[in-house]
Design brief:
homodimer, binds magnesium ion, 45% helix, 262 residues, binds adenosine-5'-triphosphate
């Protein structure tokens, strides 16, 4: 089962979602592979790989024919493997456009190892180019993390538009598993309530527009989520009793339910 | 004078910086053009252009030979013109890679109108591909908005690396005008102080590492900055007496000083 975490709007929490959801599924005993398709390699850095040690990376596997079996590496989390991101991906569109079957490249490279994992999660860069098309074609489901702010809302309309066109134009058969509300303000302080009021207006708009495609679990803004990556840990290792850890556990449960058709 | 606002890390405030800095310069009487190079067209939406009315856009000018004079439009802000973004830019790398002189395309299309503006600000998508290379080559200066969080810090190291390589590899002669600290927490509440402490650690790291390349003016997290785009207004129209409006006025002053060599 391949789940693609995507949003062309930047900074909505794709990497944070991918890392912590992967960790939550691995903690439940599922065999998980995180595929980092971002040139910045944020997910790889968050899982402890040093910037100078990213190679062999997903870019080399996709664009230079490197063996995926050799490129996949273990992480410090049991049951979670990683295919790192890296700067080679920055020119992926240029390289992919010259090859036969350019949209199906990721599907092809994942084929030999797909059976070894229960879940494969792909972290995408904030774009909608050929590399993201590859991810959507390789995926069974996709998840869209959204921050309830006006600019992020407009980005979502644009993303849904484009994915619908892919589905009809290219016969891509990927299903939206859900929209995750991220960075919801959780504090009762008066100073922040204006922000919370705005956010809740946007969340209501999303629920009206997309119905139960909006996941019930929301992830609140939590400073521990910005700290954990600097210690190369998931939220479960860094702050196992935190609200954030609970929210990601809940998210994993809800994702599992939806993947199994409930 | 062409100023490029760039950061491959998503959600750091490129669009918010571009829109409000452009407005601040226009308010001072400078003739300003905002060039939206983002397929999401966030800057265009923030300045009141409807998603269905983006054409003719920068994508059509760059990739389809549309006349830039005809594509530029007025905004509801005096002295500020706009060249809209749009979805055509999503496959810009594929189209640009097939043409002669592919890195200099933006420089070429801006040439006929450059003299009509004192400042041209380019809002970039969160990437470092051929389109961003075009922007860096067309630019005189570039600005990097950064949110003081660990993942954004790693992204900055990567960005500076890549830009240095462009400069030596391709003879690009663009100067870093400054790094803007954005979304700095401004509240004295205990609940937030942990976040503020982390942020200030990162700001100190940045000042140690990049010296006076880090602008003195910082932009604090302010909910009015997320609201203004939904009213198609700059912060000066939406909340002229707010701290955020003052911060952007101060930022404009500092940018002007730096552009004039102080
Ligand atoms: N719920 C949250 N609470 C607090 N901080 C968060 C939360 N989710 C994400 N962050 C922080 O916000 C920043 C952006 O998140 P992240 O990098 O995961 O987004 P992204 O969508 O992957 O970004 P990009 O578009 O650059 O790939 C990071 O510094 C991250 O630590
Ligand atoms: N100082 C600030 N205070 C509060 N909110 C802010 C601030 N700066 C930006 N924002 C909000 O944060 C979100 C991200 O900002 P923005 O869209 O400008 O970033 P960006 O770097 O242009 O994103 P992208 O990478 O998608 O192009 C927006 O919803 C914006 O309104
Ligand atoms: Mg990311
Ligand atoms: Mg933007």
């Amino acid at each position: 089962m391949v789940i693609v975490v995507i949003n062309n709007k930047g900074g909505t929490g794709k990497t944070t979602t991918c890392v912590n959801l992967s960790a939550a599924l691995a903690n439940l005993g599922y065999r998980v592979l995180l595929v980092d398709l971002d040139p910045q390699a944020s997910a790889s850095l968050s899982l402890g790989v040093d910037y100078s040690n990213l190679s062999p990376s997903s870019g080399e596997v996709l664009l230079e024919g490197y063996s995926i079996e050799k490129a996949i590496r273990k992480t410090n989390i049991n049951c979670l493997d990683l295919l790192t991101g890296g700067i080679e991906l920055a020119h992926s569109d240029l390289v992919l456009s010259d090859i036969e079957d350019r949209e199906n490249k990721l599907t092809e490279v994942l084929e030999p190892i797909k059976d070894r994992y229960d879940y494969i999660l792909c972290d995408c860069a904030p774009a909608l180019s050929l590399l993201q098309v590859n991810a959507l074609i390789a995926g069974d489901h996709f998840i869209i993390p959204v921050v309830p702010e006006y600019l992020a809302l407009e980005g979502l309309v644009n993303l849904m538009d484009v994915v619908e066109r892919f589905k009809t134009g290219m016969g891509v058969d990927i299903d939206l598993l859900g929209i995750i509300i991220n960075k919801l303000n959780s504090t009762p302080f008066v100073f922040l309530n204006r922000e919370l009021r705005n956010q809740l207006d946007i969340v209501n708009l999303l629920r009206e527009h997309y119905g139960d495609k909006v996941l019930k679990t929301t992830i609140k803004r939590n400073v521990q989520l910005t700290e954990a990556p600097s210690y190369n840990q998931s939220i479960f290792q860094y702050a196992p009793k935190s609200n954030a850890a609970q929210q990601y556990s809940q998210l994993a449960e809800e994702i599992l339910m939806r993947c199994n058709g409930f």
